[in-house]
Amino acid sequence: MKGILFKDFLIKQIAAGAKTMTRRTKGLEVINEVPSRYMHTAHNFKNGQSIFLNMLTGDNVFVKPEYLIGEVIYVKENYIPDYFADRTTAYGTDWNSVPELLIHKPKYKSKLMMPEREARYFLTITNVRVERLKSITEADAISEGVETIPLQDIVAYKMYMPYKGFEMWVTSAVESFYWLIKSISGNGTWENNPWVWVYEFELKKRD
Q: Is the pLDDT score of 43 beyond 80?
């Protein structure tokens, strides 16, 4: 079974049911060397293959997503196996919500090496499509798990690049997602407007 990585706060959003979508560029590296040069022309929902037309040369480029519809993947987290008295696993995502972890601040194993057997969250891929990053809608930005900020009379969303330590907010989920991408991928990603796989998923927790 394949694993997938998220920032810890996004894992919490997944667990809460607030994040049901993710955008990834793996498999689109050739297309994204010059993303504006390509047009998406076809998608095969059976095998996941997409076709892009190179508008400069007229050549077709065939690409496949990392995850396919119906596939189940597991969420990788920093972890310590057999940490608690009942020999259950401790997860780094819970560091500030489980008193024992908050007090003792244990050293976790890297999520990069987490095996499936230690995972607690599993995602079933329910839909896959391809689009440009800036094509995201307000509804999709919310599905990406951008966090809401409680303000009187308005719905506001977290700005993921705080100014001089102050928590900032915006009134658009798309703008919040822009700051989220900037905080994760750095400058230039949004501006380059790469092609991305859009994965929709449903959460299943380990029994």
A: yes
Distance between CA 141 and CA 38 in Å, rounded? 24
- Please name the residues in contact with 103: beta carbons below 8 A apart, sequence gap of 6 or more: none
Q: Confirm if 25 and 195 have CB atoms less than 8 A apart.
A: yes
- Assess if residue 7 is contained within a domain: yes
9-36 in b/e form (b: 16+ CB < 10 A) is ebbbbbbeebbbbbbebebbeebbeebe
Contact, 169 vs 104, CB < 8 A?
no
The answer to whether the beta carbons of residues 123 and 73 sit under 8 Å apart is yes
With 80 as the cut, is the pLDDT of residue 46 above it? no
The reply to whether 104 falls in a domain is: no
- Strand 21-24 relative to strand 195-205, pairing: antiparallel
Cβ-based burial of 105 (10 A; exposed 0-12, middle 13-18, buried ≥19): exposed
Look up the pTM and report it: 0.92
Residue 25, amino acid: T
Per-residue pLDDT of 75-125, as tens digits, reads: 999 999 999 988 889 999 998 888 888 888 899 999 999 999 999 999 999
Q: Which residues pair with 22 in a beta bridge?
A: 199
CATH number for the domain spanning 39: value is 3.10.400
Query: What is the count of structural domains for the chain?
Result: 1
Interval 166-188: pLDDT, tens: 778 899 999 999 999 999 998 89
Beta bridge partners of 30: none
